[in-house]
Amino acid sequence: MRIDHKPEGIRQSMSWLHTWTGIVLGWLLYVIFFTGTLSYFQDEISLWMKPELHRSVPTGDVDQTVQATLAGMHTLAPNATAWTLNLPTERRTTVAASWREPGSENAGRAGTKRAELDAATGEQITPRETRGGGFLYRFHFELHSMPRAVSRWIVGIATMFMLVAIISGVITHKKIFTDFFTFRPRKGQRSWLDAHNVTAVLALPFHVMITFSGLLLLMGTLMAWPVDAVYQGDRQAYNAERRGGGGGGGGDGAPRRGTRPMADAQPVDLAVAIVPMLAEAKAQWPGRAVGTVTVNKPGKPGATIELREHGSESLLSRGAARRLRFDAATGTLREQPAPAPQSAANAIYNVVVVAHLGDFAGPTVRWLLFLSGVAGTAMVGTGLVLWVVKRLPERRKLGRTPWGHHLVEKSNIAVITGLAMATAGYFWLNRLLPADMAGRTGWEINGFFIVWLASLVHAVLRPARAAWIEQSIGAAVLFALLPLLNPLTGGHGLVSSLVLGQLSIAGVDLAMLALASIFATIAAHLIGKARKTAAPARPAPAAPSAPVTP
Amino acid sequence: MMTFLIFGLCYLAMTMISATMSRHQHQLLASVPAPRLVQGLRYGGWLVLAVALAPALRTWGVSVGIAAWLGLLTFACLALALQLTYRPRSIWRCSLALIALIALIALMPLARLLPATLP
Question: Are residues A421 and A546 in the same domain?
Fold first, then answer.
């Protein structure tokens, strides 16, 4: 690519590749990293965005929670063919119940009704309508308002470019081991390059894992042909086989035929019957919790109760939780369905994919993944800024700013600070729109895009440095005030959530404060720099200094 | 506590390895160390790094354990990099405190034996 036709080394060609793949899809990758990182806490964010659910505080006594919610289900859905109760976890304060009414012959999800129950009292709580953290999660691989197939292709291509950028970046990096710990602040371009390198190299295992597994997750979209060829386009058959056959049990609770004749003629008091079963589960799975209670044919002869372990211990067995099924009447253990055996290909797919999703492990590992995601977001962000900073000498030489540089600089502002403001705006609207407003879900999301668009317009209209400073302050203020808005609009604020031990709610508030302080630091840094450059400029006001971003 | 133990071991390992790098030697040490010592620090650092994997595997099993170890290693390195930039002297204090704490954690299983042997 050299205009002087001199031979080009591999490092130079890789550097070219890295720069241009980086800038072409960098904005999209930043958006994917930012929303994807937040998605590690999508359950927590959804909970934060449904303040009605905050008042459900589990007592910590599983027996009591199960008894209370069973009583609640008796009044809520006495005629259902099966109840499924997802018990509270460290990530959920309520019991998520689902059931099937006898009339509904709709197989699968269509015939299933859902409700949130207060974990202490078993009463139904109706939260406000919102997409919650699910919007950010979906956005990070399906974007918005375009056909799913198209958006997944776009994200898939960006992911592929990310893989190219990682590999070419490693080759380009001259001194990957001597610079391993090196960060040299206040040196302009050098510092940006160091920051880009440090966040890239130190979290390299994460970056490789997340990019590669991202591609695998999109495999069905990007490489649909093998499945179409082998299964003749029957995608359901493929999915069923990949998941290791019908797992059975679960939420659908199809009554089993051909079992022993029913011993019980009259309905069973489930609240009494469940206690020894929970004790049995505790004995069988030491150190593990019961995640789901399923009651088949509640209140009718031949009722069974199935207990399902919460999560699973290994990355290899995604969702292969252990189960215990009891006769409701006699309390005898009927069967212990073994988790479906895993094929090697499946186990590998699971390891990679589940590591991406991060829904396998306790808070420690999820926090590590989240922080690695923050490092990844910072890596993409510093890379974007570096593109502009690296071209400042060129601009000074020209005495003007080329159109392309303007475009990148302004887009950087709208993407980096603008997305933060848009996300904060989404949370604000969640609390400010009336809880019973029609179409509020849509307006929360519209608000997200309106704020984002406004930040783009602002970035275009203002000089670059002023736009950076103003938008950083904007993001800092919007995020800093959210933990105050939370208790004012019906949620549990930091004080009450910490006192009640609702760490999932407190965590979101604290994360918002952390985000606010990050943007406040950026703003303070930029203001300090603006002052410093303004002072020596005064003796020579005629100097044609182009507006310079950090 | 296991998280802390793994993080501490990773931090110590990376401190040893960084002390073998000429760019950081003057930040950590008063004089340029003998080549023998550098060699020792390098092997020692890698060894401690491998040792840190053991508690991760014990706590989380193989698959999650490796992921957690890599994650903690990332942030141990990040902490060290920031310290090398802004407070290189504090690394000594941190390392000594970590050694003491890790020794304490390692000795804890022995403490359980203590009352039985005492009269």
Answer: yes
